[in-house]
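Before the break, one more example. Copy the sequence into your notebook; we will annotate it together after we see the structure.
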Amino acid sequence: MKRTMQGLIMASVLMVSAIGIASAALPEPQDPQVVANMTFEQRLQMSKDLREQFKQATPEERRAYRQKLHAKFKALSPEDRKALRDKMHAQWQALSPEQKKELRENRKAMIAAMTPEERLEMKKEREEWMKAHPNEKEHWNKPMSN
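Here is what the structure looks like once it is written out:
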């Protein structure tokens, strides 16, 4: 009887641990074109949900998520990427100052939840991208206007 109880307790602990680990995994990144067609509220909710999942994920899981997201962007044709960028820029311009502020705060909170090493790694990734795309550097260094 004692062994049976111990076995049940161990099985319960393992099951709870497995569920906790499975729930910490990040989802697959959304297709950028699908995200571009979402409403502001949908996009904001998605980013808040993702931020909560990022908090529970390991640095390796967050890195893998970013790499998958970059791969989805790279899979688009140059024309599609430009059209997507133009569409997202127009959507940004159409947002109210309060909505822009909310998005900025959400992005800052996501970055703040990362480790200093991850932030440094993201900075290096951005610098490498800027070197590889010198024509785009001027565009991305402009501050987003309200």
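The chain has eight helices and no strands. Confidence is low (pLDDT under 50) at residues 10-23. Try to locate both features in your own notes.
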